Amino acid sequence: MFITADQITAANKTNLDALQGLATKSFAGVEKLVELNMAAAKAMVTESFSHAQSVLAAKDLQAAFALQTGLVAPMTEKAVSYGRHVYGILMESGSEYTKAVEGKTAEAQKAITQVMENVSKNAPIGTESAVAVLKSALASSQNAIDSAQSSAKQALALAESNITAVTEQALSAAAAVAKKA
Question: How far is it, in rounded angstroms, from Cα 103 to Cα 99?
């Protein structure tokens, strides 16, 4: 089985289309991050000036201090919310890449399997054991790829749960600080 120029052209077109799709999704993710950062910056400036005016309008030092300490919990909640938004955008973009890589990996595995089938059908007499070794190596490599993908997914799930736990601890600590004040 020989590869023709048309097959190479079709493969290149498919790969270029996939690359264009990923680039488009990457830019969409960047746009979301820019929009989020602009909204966060605008809100921060507005809230900062509003808070500064409240502190300046305080009648005594104790009232000003109460305003300052009362700011800790809301700021922590906003920072956590911002972090969650960023994380969500990054995870969404990352999942698109993961889908693309998994799709290309499946296509490659299918193509290699087809090549191995053609090799085994057209192999000269007496090379059955060599073909069997190649098939075994192919199966082992496919199992290793599947295992690596599974491990990566488990690691990602563990990281997500750790991030959630740390976020909840930060919110609890901020609430405790606000209550003490």
Answer: 6
